[in-house]
Each structure stands twice: as C-alpha cells, then as structure tokens.
Design brief:
Distance between the termini: 31 Å
Helix content: 10-25%
CATH class of the largest domain: Mainly Beta
Mean pLDDT: 82
Shape: globular
Largest sheet: 8 strands, mixed
CATH superfamily of the largest domain: L,D-transpeptidase catalytic domain-like
Strand content: 15-25%
Radius of gyration: 21 Å
Low-confidence stretches: 1-12, 29-49, 59-67
Length: 238
C-alpha cells in the first residue's frame, strides 16, 4: 500500500478529482498504452484494420514479441479499471498447483495470467508439517510482506504457519512424531514465501529445489511484486 502523511481515508472518487491516482502496477514497456489519466491505463492497442468488418484479433507485444494472443479476461478487466481498485487485495487472488508447476493470478475473479513455479525438494507428498521437512505448505494463506532479496530478487512472505498448521503441528508433537534436535522437537517452521530464483536451469526443468518456498523466474517475481498487494489471498493445492 502507499503510505500517506494524512491518515484521512481517501476514496477513489476523491483521488480522481484531485488527480492523485497512483500508476497501474502492471506495465510492460513493450506495450503501447493509451487511455484517460489519471488512473491505470493498461490498454492493448489493436492493429488497424483495412475494413470495418470483421474486427481484427488484437495485436499486442508480450515479452517483447508481437503475437495474436488475445488478452485474458482479467487483463481486459484491469484495462477498464479507472480507480484504485487494483490496490485492493480483495480484488486479487492466487492459486498454486504443485503437481502442475503452475501459479495462476486472478483479478476480480477473472484469469489474469499463469506463471511457472517450482517447490520444496522433499520427495514426500503432502503439506509442510515441521521445520526442515523441505515441503511446500498446502492451504489458504495471504501475502503479509514484500521485500527485496539479494539472492531471489524479491520475497513475498506468506503467513505460514496459520492456525490450521499450528494445530496440526501440536498434534504431531504430542504424539511424538515431530523429529528432535538436541533432545527437543523441531519447530513448526516459517519464512515461507514466493520468490525468484538463483537456479534458473532447475526452474525451467521443473525440478523442485527449494526448502519449502515457491520459486518463479526472476522476471515473473518482479511482475508479481508489482501487481499483488499485501493481503492477497494465496491458495496452495497439491
């Protein structure tokens, strides 16, 4: 979120009238943007058609390459956003599928974009149980912090462990299933998040190498940190 010296709530309408709208977070330098200002102006520009009908397929540049790929429903909806709705974490969500190495972002319930991801290096399936088991958690979490990382470009911290994780861990500890170090059970763990990679070859090869985090390519983590506000819902599935 953007810090303000004045703590009085500012509505989207007030921001538009005052001309203080923040820039849209997701902008590709290779795409020509147009639209009213202030406010996000993420617009795919269609190639002019020599005839009125039929309408041409939008021509856009994605990752620097001109393509006929049609913008996703979420990107088109984002394009129509003319207020600060894109800063509201309730308008964003992330679904992660470990089995298919996929991280999917939704904007206002519509598909925005798919990203490739890899996970914890444990050969045991299932969710994270305790510190050091090298598993990626499964469940419902939120992004609670974003900070730069020398090793991984950016780190988007998740609120692991949540209440369910803690309850599961306590049951395992009481039953004696949690391993011990120096005579004491290891902890439930923490510092789980979404980050970039210093092992791009492993990422591209679908090789899970982290100690429990979700790793995406560096250019993807740069994009994710721009578009996803703190508080965004993240659902991790097997």
């Amino acid at each position: 979120m953007i810090a303000r010296e004045n703590t009085t709530p500012i509505t989207a309408s007030d921001a538009v009238k005052a001309g203080t709208m923040p820039p849209a977070p997701w902008r590709d330098p290779n795409i020509k943007y147009s639209g009213p200002t202030p406010g996000p102006d993420f617009t795919f520009t269609a190639t002019p058609s020599p005839t009125a009908t039929p309408s041409p397929v939008p021509q856009v540049r994605i990752d620097g390459v001109r393509t006929d790929r049609v913008p996703t429903p979420g990107q088109l909806l984002f394009d129509k956003t003319r207020d600060i709705a894109f800063m509201d974490p309730l308008n964003w969500s992330v679904t992660i599928l470990k089995k298919t190495h996929k991280l999917t972002v939704y904007y206002k319930g519509r598909l925005f974009k798919d990203y490739h991801a890899v996970f914890g290096r444990s050969f045991e399936p299932g969710t994270k149980l305790w510190e050091g088991d090298r598993r990626t958690p499964e469940g419902v979490y939120t992004i609670v912090e974003k900070h730069p990382s020398r090793r991984w470009e950016w780190f988007l911290t998740l609120n692991y462990p949540n209440d369910i994780d803690r309850h599961r861990y306590e049951q395992l500890r009481e039953s004696g299933e949690v391993p011990k170090e120096d005579g004491r059970p290891v902890g439930v763990g923490g510092r789980i998040g979404i980050h970039g990679t210093d092992e791009p070859e492993l990422n591209s090869g679908n090789i899970n190498w982290t100690t429990g985090c979700i790793s995406v390519d560096d250019h993807d983590i740069e994009e994710l940190k721009r578009i996803l506000p703190n508080g965004t819902l993240v659902i991790i599935k097997p």
